[in-house]
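hey m, so remember when u said the tokens were messed up on ur end? i reran from scratch. heres the input so u can diff it against urs
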Amino acid sequence: MNSTVPAYVFGPFRLLPLERMLFDGERALRLGSRAMDLLLALLERAGEIVDKQELLAIVWPNAVVDDATLRVHLAALRKVLGDGRDGQRYITTIPGRGYGFLAPLSLAGPVEAAPGVPVEPQHNLPVVLTRMVGRSETVQAMAANLLQLRLMCIVGPGGIGKTTVAIALAARVLRRYTDGVCFVDLAPLAEGHLVPLALATALGVAVPAHEPMPALLAYLQHRHMLIVLDNCEHVIAAAAALADALLKGAPLLHLLATSREPLRISSEHLQRLPALELPPADVLPDALAARHFAAVQLFCERCAAVVDGFVLADADVAVVTDICRRLDGIPLALELAAGRVGHFGLHELQRQLHDRLRLLTRGPRNSPLRHQTLRATLDWSYGLLDEEERSVLLALSVFKSRFRLESAAAVVGRDVFDTVADLAAKSLLSIEFCCRQAHYRLLDTTRAYAAQRLADSSAWAEVSLRYARHCAGLADTIADDWESMAADTWSTRYCCHVDDLRSAIDWAFGEDGDVRLGIRLTIAAQTLFYQLSLMDEYRSRVRLALQYLELNGIDDVEAEVQLRITLGHLLMHTMGVTEEVVIAFQRGYVLAMRITSAPRRAEAVCGMWIVSMALADFFGAAAFADQFGVLCDGKDDPAMLLIHARMASASEHMLGRHAAAAELARAVLAHPQGGGHTGFNSALLADYQVCMRGNLCRSLWLMGQSDEALAVAREAVLVGLDHNGVSLCLALAFGAIPVALWCGQHVLARAWVYLLREHGARYGLLYWSNWGENYQRLLDSVREPVTFTWPVPVGWPLQADVMVTLHDAPVDGPALRRARSGQAPWSAPEVLRRAAHGDWQLLEQGDRAGLLRVRAQLEEALQLAREQGALGWQLRCATSLARLMASQGEARQAHALLAGIYGAFTQGHASADMLEAQALLEQLPGQ
């Protein structure tokens, strides 16, 4: 059989690669397709050791295959070749490295070679002066694909490394092509008609300038060659026409093209080149691990080339990864930045990146002009656009994150379907898929370039206004979807848009902005800022919106209500319960009562209920809960009813009606809508599932169900971890940690206190950080004999109420007065018991009157606990009272009292209180 492609000849065998036929002399041998692919791959790299992973990628490019499969097909190939027979070896195994064809090999066919002398095909590939980083696997996969393809186009934005990859790929597959590789640089060409002439020049072929194609095709018709057309984008039509003609007129040719957009001909296979790999945004590796990411590796290698002794230190990893991320992992940008490290150092370079187009200049003088500065690279791409594409690109630069097609149309002000598709094809927009929807994004470097051009154009103001209006609508959608969408789906879809809302708000309150739109944006952004726990930042933005509202004399009572109520929440969680917090809530409440807006009234009443609870004004809070119930009358609104149930449950618990509180909490958790987000959840800040579990676990413990209480507390923490920072802090501070301490689970409590302090500090939640610090001091005082200082009641009254139930230090005056006056019903039995216990310890020996007073107070505490159905407090009161009675000679009566209450428990027998009671019962004589 005659073949136009040279045959591989080894031993008695002859392999025709185009026909995929293997002959032993004149006899055709049967060889499976995978074994044939393996043999071809090894022959192409004859004399080299080919890594087994590379072989797997070549032979099974789109499948996951284990080593055993590779060994099976190699065994089949060796059997056909008679490998090892008569001492002849063709395929060699190098343990730990791979496989190689190391036997004598020659090529025979159209171009005869001397027997036994491998032919090294000719090429004109440019010399690459620096090592390629992070592309080995890509080149390996592309080499495998080229076995089956005739035209591959490497596509990507400027500076992404298309030429470097193309040269590496061509060098790797060089020996496949008898007539070698021809590299054609199209970048210098000014006009498309010069493209065929450039190819002729690279080939060294004389062709007529007016009609070069016939002579080119005549020369190439029977040649087995790879032609590389580099930098096609500015002559894309001519490059595409040339490629199409070559594929049709020269059947043995393979083509490799690089371009910022596809050639768009039928046989083209696109290989989009991604940015170099970056460390995950939420992980900070050490220096050794960071260098495994290609972007960091390239940056560090180029730094070492310009700064003598440069080594990445652990302390600099955060700076270097930020630089790499802000430069989008684009090799050219990273190399230009590394070239400036010697002048600025890493930290100053990072600070200067806000003006990256000015900073990233002075590339190597031997680089193409378009690669010597970042601006030149982007100018090259921008110059290839038509007027419509330029206009749309500049308008899209206002987006700070990904956007959808309809968002692009809203900002541009017209249909942009075709233009966006063209910009994506030209590598100026990247396409991402999220939640089964296509999104678009500009690389940060491209965005900075386009934004600078937009700011210098007359379209800036109009585009910015459309963008701000679009962001206001987007914020409304984000808030609406929070009520109905699963939290993880919502976060994946919307969290990235916080930068757009920031930008729109900043513009609206800027010199050429729209103050009313800025106020609307600030209010609409509430849900996103809350759920991202950006409390400190959002507090500043709400304050600014109120200032502009007042300075501009804007009469919008409904907006002012929302802003003041929101400010109250933010101040409380970030600054504590201060006078400013109370004023903000009160002012919002007064204004809300003047208007008829039901949502604003509901938010205002909720706000007053929350601040009343924080001030430990439980009766005042109950009154606001009742007022909210009146707002619910006659309304078939599940959201309103659930909020009222949540408020009522918490109020009932604080007023000492724990069974009612637990019943309401269970009802909310069991409600069909109780597992989702409901109408005023953002205003209340904390998630229902978290709040109700926190309230339920406290109520259960007080009702004597400590095991179940601890289980619900664990659930509250787990659910809180999936929601915003305030939700988790509330779950820990007001639910999980007190219950753990009441159960005597100090190790668990310490873990939760650490989590509370860490979370509060991370999100700037001073109120909750203070809870964590006081819990830590309390736990430290248990471990070491130090004086425990009670929280100051002014500003932290609820915290003081909780802490007094957790420590054996003498009960202070304010806490005792609140218990005796009925202001803190839920904790009163325990406060009275602790106060009595403290008095008992201070009595002088023989003070019978003092003992009678202590006993009366303990009996009072026990009776109050019985009235509340607070079995947890009853056990503590009965244990203290039994000890006192035993000391007065009433041991049997003491046993009877304590045994009756101890026997009422059905769970929690391993808790600290139950173990203490059990030990005392064993000491006391029974009846």
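this time it looks ok to me. The radius of gyration is 38 Å. if urs says something different then somethings off w ur setup not the seq
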